[in-house]
């Protein structure tokens, strides 16, 4: 198809769809995030039309808005929203992974931003072309031009220049790619970009950050001593603020210099708070000239600041005093920038269309330049952050509603939160529920999880305690994910579906599943907390299904079904499995304990039933991951798939002198002790009776007795 015909068809599609959707309405009863997305879909029926486009373009504004659209989809579940984002990806990405209008050799860091939403498109579609496109964008980073200190140039056509904008365009994508591909070596470079741009743009006179810096000091707009541009532009600092909170999602807490990155963000937040307009709660176009003649309150920087502050408080990067700043700012946005027409269509006004430095129509970056750039409504740089900020606001409102229920209601619902995938509960996802629970740590909380499939890589945070998670039906309430160790060298310990860092938690009637194919280690349940109980749960996986990751932690499994292939119950914790079915899917090993030498009790299986898939006939009870592994089976029914030897030394005879393996009173075709390895022990009745005493099993948790 020739270019002229292609452009003609695009133009026709634009006109037809614009007319078709012109009369659509938006319900005023919907949350603001949904209302804005619905309004944008009316204004731009085809997602490639975002940012006022009349031709196809791979652009950061599309990535910004479609990331926001997917966030709304994740929260509220309307598949039309996912399809809207998918349509842009499908239109722009060719089957070989190449991207229409994208040219790597331009080395434009803006072009990386749209890679972020592709991660999520690939996750749900598994179409390889999207993965190839992500890799293509990531390859730009390997050869992107840099300054001598390692800082990325903003574009090839802007040599030696670092712009605050570029941190948002490149670093969250770079960080997420590093996280997903276990490229731990990249984190130092990512953090360094934040530090370098702060070093080059920081204005010691007012604590703000200038728009950009030319480290060569050759540009006409650059200060001849510092290389800095003349002013602190609101949106540039907004991009920078959002870059911090989004990149930090993927940078490990232990990473060197992460604290330095947070220190810079703390100063940034301090200045945002300081220069907030007292009357409206908003921020000016030129921040270092706030309130001056000709300056104006601008919507894109205001929405960016509000989003960054909301998220930073939620994530614990800032104290709660900044929540007041964010709330005041959000209300200021609604009062000053948001307009709603007779059809309920929402617009956000007073956004600077664009501002830059240098270029063909040379921009000096002086005060008059910034205040005289075009101002327009529904610019994506305001729309996207407004959606992000609204989602944070809506999370906050959910917490407040539940708090009000606690105060005014005497029913069970005052201490019960409901998670329902169909939107009928307090939360749609367990991840959202984690945020709401923080308000309830002064008493016990029950999280009732309605039937549904919750595809989430879920972390129960360390601050969580005294919470019971109850599924509606163990077979129909499913928490699932599909990471495995062979995904780009992810490694075993990042593959979990559910990771529990909190203490004193109970889980009932749930399926916890890692449904990755049998391609290597894939953890379903990873425990780091202590005093954790699992009652009537189904824990499904293949190799390494259950990782009890903390030495000395106390765990209890009652009437659970646990399946796997190799070493599918492993780790250093103390765990009692009572009345459970342990199902082997392959000829291999059930346990791989790594009990520390100083801890007497490791894994205890009492009155359990060991079963196997058809054709499985050579399964060992365990092998020692570490020399002093401690495992006992008491009163269990062992199927014929259990080998006569029972135990294996992990190809290391030295383990036979240290491993603590024992049995007592087991039944079934695999229970005969006549062929057991000589270094495993058969307990006496008196020795076995010790395991009836919970205080003996849980010496390190003497005050804990989980409810059965």
Report what the structure shows:
With 708 residues, the chain is an alpha/beta fold. The chain folds into two domains: 3-393, Alpha/alpha barrel (Glycosyltransferase); 415-701, Pectate Lyase C-like (3 Solenoid), CATH 2.160.20.10. It is built from 17 helices and 32 strands. A hairpin with a 5-residue loop joins strand 3 and strand 4. Mean pLDDT is 91; it is low at 1-22 and 406-414.
Architecture per CATH nomenclature, i.e. the level-2 architecture of the largest domain:
Alpha/alpha barrel
Strand pairing plus helix content: what structural class? alpha/beta
Largest sheet: 11 strands, parallel
Separation, N- and C-terminal Cα atoms: 69 Å
What percent of residues adopt helix (DSSP H or I)?
25-40%
Key structural traits:
Glycosyltransferase, Pectate Lyase C-like, 32 strands, 8-stranded parallel β-sheet, 33% helix, 11-stranded parallel β-sheet, disordered N terminus, alpha/beta
């Amino acid at each position: 198809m020739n270019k002229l015909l292609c452009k003609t068809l695009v133009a026709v599609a634009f006109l037809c769809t614009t007319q078709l959707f012109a009369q659509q309405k938006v319900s005023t009863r919907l949350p603001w995030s949904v209302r804005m997305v619905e309004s944008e879909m009316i204004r731009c029926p085809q997602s490639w039309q975002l940012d006022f486009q009349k031709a196809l373009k791979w652009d950061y504004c599309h990535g910004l808005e479609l990331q926001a659209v997917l966030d709304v989809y994740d929260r509220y579940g309307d598949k039309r929203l996912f399809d809207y984002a998918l349509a842009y990806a499908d239109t722009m990405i060719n089957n070989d992974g190449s991207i229409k209008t994208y040219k790597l050799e331009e080395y434009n860091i803006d072009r990386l931003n749209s890679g972020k939403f592709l991660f999520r498109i690939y996750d749900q579609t598994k179409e390889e072309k999207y993965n190839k496109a992500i890799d293509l964008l990531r390859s730009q980073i390997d050869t992107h031009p840099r300054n001598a200190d390692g800082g990325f140039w903003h574009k090839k056509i802007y040599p030696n220049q670092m712009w605050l904008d570029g941190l948002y365009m490149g670093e969250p994508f770079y960080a997420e790619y590093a996280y997903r591909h276990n490229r731990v070596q990249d984190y130092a470079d990512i953090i360094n970009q934040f530090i370098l741009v702060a070093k080059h743009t920081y204005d010691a006179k007012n604590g703000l950050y200038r728009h950009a810096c030319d480290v060569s000091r050759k540009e006409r707009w650059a200060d001849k001593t510092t290389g800095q541009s003349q002013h602190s532009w609101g949106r540039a600092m907004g991009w920078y603020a959002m870059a911090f909170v989004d990149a930090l999602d993927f940078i490990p807490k232990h990473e060197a210099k992460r604290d330095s990155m947070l220190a810079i963000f703390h100063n940034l937040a301090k200045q945002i708070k300081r220069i907030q307009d007292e009357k409206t709660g908003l921020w000016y176009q030129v921040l270092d000239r706030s309130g001056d003649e000709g300056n104006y309150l601008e919507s894109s920087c205001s929405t960016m600041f509000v989003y960054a502050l909301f998220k930073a408080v939620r994530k614990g990067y800032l104290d709660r005093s900044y929540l007041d700043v964010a709330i005041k700012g959000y209300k200021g946005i609604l009062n000053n920038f948001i307009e709603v027409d007779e059809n309920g269509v929402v617009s956000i006004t007073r956004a600077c269309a664009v501002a830059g430095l240098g270029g063909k129509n040379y921009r000096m970056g002086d005060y008059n330049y910034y205040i005289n750039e075009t101002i327009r409504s529904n610019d994506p740089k305001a729309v996207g952050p407004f959606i992000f900020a609204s989602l944070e606001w809506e999370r906050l409102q959910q917490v407040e509603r539940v708090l009000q229920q606690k105060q005014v209601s005497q029913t069970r619902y005052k201490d019960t939160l409901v998670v329902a995938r169909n939107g009928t509960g307090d939360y749609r996802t367990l991840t959202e529920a984690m945020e709401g629970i923080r308000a309830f740590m002064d008493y016990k909380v029950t999280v009732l999880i309605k039937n549904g499939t919750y595809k989430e890589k879920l972390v129960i945070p360390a601050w969580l305690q005294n919470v019971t998670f109850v599924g509606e039906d163990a077979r129909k309430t499913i928490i699932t994910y599909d990471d495995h160790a062979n995904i780009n060298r992810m490694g075993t310990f990042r593959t979990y579906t559910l990771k529990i860092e909190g203490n004193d938690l109970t889980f009932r009637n749930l399926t916890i599943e890692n449904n990755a194919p049998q391609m290597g280690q894939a953890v379903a349940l990873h425990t780091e907390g202590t005093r954790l109980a699992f009652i009537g749960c189904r824990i499904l996986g293949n190799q390494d299904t259950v990782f009890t990751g903390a030495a000395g932690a106390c765990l209890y499994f009652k009437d659970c079904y646990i399946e796997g292939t190799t070493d599918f119950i492993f780790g250093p914790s103390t765990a009692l499995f009572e009345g459970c079915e342990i199902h082997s899917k392959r000829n291999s090993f059930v346990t791989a304990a790594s009990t520390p030498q100083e801890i007497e009790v490791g894994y205890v299986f009492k009155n359990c039933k060991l079963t196997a898939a058809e054709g499985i006939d050579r399964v060992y009870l365990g092998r020692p991951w570490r020399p002093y592994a401690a495992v006992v089976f008491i009163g269990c029914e062992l199927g014929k798939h259990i080998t006569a030897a029972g135990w294996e030394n992990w190809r290391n005879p030295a383990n036979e002198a240290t491993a603590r393996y024992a049995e007592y009173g087991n039944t079934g075709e695999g229970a005969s002790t006549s062929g057991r390895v000589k270094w495993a022990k058969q307990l006496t009745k008196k020795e076995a009776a010790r395991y009836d005493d919970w205080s003996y099993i849980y010496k390190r948790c003497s005050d804990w007795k989980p409810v059965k």
